[in-house]
Amino acid sequence: MEPIAIVGIGCRFPGNANSPEDLWTLLKEEQDIIEDIPQDRLAQMLPAHATEAQRKLLTRQGGYLTDIDRFAASFFDIAPKEARYIDPQQRLLMEVAWEALEDANQVLDEELKAQTGVFVGLWTNDYETYMYNTHQPVNLYMTTGGSHYAASGRLSYVLDARGPSMTVDTACSSSLVALHLACQSLRAGECSLALVGGANLILQPYITLGYARSKMLSPDHRCKFGDTQANGYVRSEGVAVVLLKRLSRAIEEQNTIYAVIQGSSINNDGQESGSLVAPSLEGQISLLRTAYRVAGISPGQVCYVEAHGTGTKAGDYAELHALGTVLREGRAPDNHCRIGSVKTNIGHTEATSGLAGLIKVALCLKHRAIPASLHHQTPSERIPWHGLPLKIQRHFEKLPSEEECLYAAVNSFGITGTNVHVVLRTPPAGNTAPTAETPRHSLLLLSAHNKHTLHMLIDHYSAFLQSVRQNQSISLDDICTSAGLGRKHMPYRIALIASSKDDAIAQLQTLNEDKEGVYIKTARLPPVFVFGESDADFQVFNSLEQDPICWDICTRCHAHLRKYTNWSLLDLLSTNRKKYPVWSASMKRVVTFVSQAAFIALWHSWGIPLEMTIGYGVGELAASYATGELQLEDGLFLAFAGKRRTSHMPELLRSSSSSGLVKNATNGVSQKDAFQSLVAPYHVTTETPVQDMVHPSDTTAFDTWNTIAVEQPHSEHTHSPEELLGTINELVALNYSVFIEVGSGTHSQLSSILQNSLKAHMKTGHLLYWPLTKEDQRLNTLHLLRYLYLSGCSADWKRFFKGRRDIQLPKYPWHRERFWLEEY
């Protein structure tokens, strides 16, 4: 049975534990965050008709979240009218699920959306009760907003996740049962990624009244697990989401792994306890033995168990007795298993409590340490400790060295007998080493849903970069890779090219001072690449040798040309060009075409879309090659030849779909003869258009060659400055706004035409000259990618950002507004 990896965690727990790091700090510092009920909750928790006895029961301490009435509705494209009807448990699940995805640096692309499952554990529906008590007219928003089924369905909808989706209610064990089902679904191949969530908010008095009267709640508002003073639990709020993958996939995708789920088991007590709401010793023993059999380990290998640990007398007795009975199997007499409960820190988060315990265990395994379980002074005399290999964890303790695989487990029980036990282990050693800081430029991409949030994000990244300035294990490349691959790219964007962390910090601070200097994604159409008849400085071509993809194109063309020339293309493209003090027109044409073809190959390797191209002069050949309408060898032939015998050209050239360059359809005409007959310089004013030469006469697909087509890919060929201006005017009229001029420089005729057309037709347009530098091909590419990103286009970032190593980046800063259904 394949293990399951925990690769992402999002959470909201009392005490402002709004991330796994916050929760770990809370646990390490042995914080007890139970507090008085907030004033803004009293109105809901104290009905107007409440008696004095009820008031005493309800004005009790607990663990409470803040700002539960606030929600980033616009981020999830939810209208304000609907948002106020949505249970805040559902709202928080959406935000926390997003944070779990970001924690894992996981973006849901189209393929992964179809393979993502959602599994939610819920119990209470206090907001639904509240809505119906407001006497508002009942509508559809109320039914979907307050119902359990909508919690998972809504999360699947806003994420466009199309795998299994379900909400589970087994009371306090709900979220861990959901996790068990998610693991089964992953192993069965029903999904490749699973979001498992739980939520619990205390918005109505009824459960509190019922449990207090039955003496399930502690009068002094503390969970004292395993202690002689244990007298019940304290209610608490919490929301948690974990992201799961099969371990093999997580390793393959180089994810950071918190812990590995080795196996799990669920059962129900049935009638063994003699009561619907009483725990069963026999049921729990059976559960534990099944879980360890499924996990394939001996119970004696487990070093720590996060107990259900509510601090009720009956619950503690059954749980500790069952754990001791099973965990002694295969265990040395002096090897006690440590036991603890997160409920002693944050209270009982009920439906979320299983995930709260799981997250604590995952953090223990990640940090190889166990924090203290609080409020344990005197072991309960009801527990036969002398016969049980158990020890309540009373202080922070480091676990053995990195080499040893550690096993731990988490227990969770529902009030009506549904039990869960999950076995975890430390993750395998990381398979990615830190990227060393090197003196090269990196591309940092940041985006947000609106301008306000983007400026908040800039602040967060500036602070983050300052916090890791001296950390040599986190390179700028690692940060940029995680940001590029691990975040969704939204409409409001910035992109910066930085040579160091300090450089990035300085640029971010400058950007945030300029509140208007934020780029908005506006382009709806792909960029237009304009290839001209370049007169650029040929030293630009020195950079081709720096990139293996570019140089591969050059060597292929060199090998082909050697059959027909006595000069070396590779020499022309390198510092050896001094061997040729005078360049022929043919040399210049070939070097221009080959360099443009090399750039095209490089862009294709980054996933940059070349769906619309314009060609002018020799640039016609590159434009056709870019969109697949002309093979590399065909373009090279025409660039070299420059002029053709028009009587032979239709016979000599094959279509771009053919496998060869020259078709010898005329007796006695060899390829070498054909090349030698084409000696005059190539120019666009030739009698026969290039497209007539490179496509067979019976082809109808190119009947509209000189018409602007919206369907891509497409290349537009022009034969005079006037035609070029007309072509660009038509493209601008069709809302093409992003133009990249390749190889002509800022003072070319093309540049002037582009600038004038954009100025005449629209207020904003984007024009980039490429390459920008003669020396650094990588920097050229970064500038192009930055330009495309800011103008709204994109690239296949998985191709560009290679050598992935996940870095924990700042969370998305929510722009939240108040949504609450008021009394009618």
List the helices and strands and how they pair.
Blueprint: E1 4-12, H1 20-28, H2 39-45, H3 52-58, E2 70-71, H4 80-83, H5 88-103, H6 110-113, E3 116-121, H7 126-133, H8 140-146, H9 149-159, E4 165-168, H10 174-187, E5 193-200, H11 206-213, E6 238-246, H12 247-252, E7 259-268, H13 281-295, E8 302-306, H14 313-327, E9 337-340, H15 343-346, H16 353-367, E10 369-370, E11 390-392, E12 397-398, E13 407-413, E14 418-425, E15 442-448, H17 451-467, H18 476-485, E16 492-498, H19 501-513, E17 519-520, E18 528-531, H20 548-561, H21 569-572, H22 585-606, E19 612-616, H23 619-626, H24 632-641, H25 649-652, H26 671-676, H27 690-694, E20 714-718, H28 721-733, E21 738-742, H29 749-761, E22 766-770, H30 777-790, H31 797-800, E23 817-818
Parallel strand pairs: 3-4, 3-5, 8-9, 8-13, 9-11, 18-19, 18-21, 19-20, 21-22
Antiparallel strand pairs: 1-6, 1-7, 2-23, 5-6, 7-14, 10-12, 13-14, 15-16, 16-17
Helix pairs in contact: 5-9, 7-8, 10-16, 13-14, 17-19, 20-22, 22-23, 22-24, 23-24, 28-29
Task: Explain what this protein looks like in three dimensions.
The chain is an alpha/beta fold and 824 residues long. The protein has three domains: 4-27 and 66-221 and 232-425, 3-Layer(aba) Sandwich (Peroxisomal Thiolase, Chain A, domain 1), CATH 3.40.47.10; 442-520, 2-Layer Sandwich (Alpha-Beta Plaits); 528-791, Malonyl-Coenzyme A Acyl Carrier Protein, domain 2 (3-Layer(aba) Sandwich), CATH 3.40.366.10. The protein is built from 31 helices and 23 strands. Strands 4-3-5-6-1-7-14-13-8-9-11 form an eleven-stranded mixed β-sheet, with helices on both faces. It has a five-stranded parallel β-sheet with strand order 20-19-18-21-22, with helices on both faces. It has a three-stranded antiparallel β-sheet with strand order 15-16-17, sandwiched between helices. The longest helix has 22 residues, at 585-606. Mean pLDDT is 85; it is low at 643-714.
